[in-house]
Amino acid sequence: MKEKFIRFMQGRYGIDQLSKFLLAVGLIVVLISVFLGNSVIGLILYLLGWVGVIYSYVRAFSRNVSKRYSENQRFLAKTYGIRSFFQKQKNIWSQRRVYHIYTCPTCKQKIRIPRGKGKIEVRCPKCGTTFIKKS
User: Is residue 83 in some structural domain?
Assistant: First the structure.
């Protein structure tokens, strides 16, 4: 069965970030529409959610690889700021166990200091301001 699916998907575009986004948003909108009941807004949201889910699968099974690739690149270009913000936050939180991250009072530069060194004098590498912090 796995081999049949692999043969079926040869020459097709597959799942990319835009397809994942459309699928997730579509399912969330369908779930929200369930809570709204049989109202007109609920019905419209239900239909829009399923359109998003179906379009994500149409993209995945499409043989027009160059067009799907360009659509995905435009999506990635438009969402770069949001994605980079969350990636930075994830990086900061992964370092919190080992480092303290302080902000320079003068230039607002973020400075990473190892934990467990006691009170230390921190010198900002950008502006040269010194301040005392506990690590």
Answer: no
Amino acid found at 98: V
Residue 16 and residue 68 share a domain = yes
3-state secondary structure of 99: strand
Per-residue pLDDT of the chain (135 residues; tens, 9 = 90+): 889 888 888 888 889 999 999 999 999 999 999 988 888 888 999 999 999 999 999 999 999 999 999 999 999 999 999 999 999 999 888 888 889 888 998 898 988 888 888 898 989 998 988 988 888
Which domain covers residue 126, as residue numbers?
98-134
Q: How many domains does the chain have?
A: 2
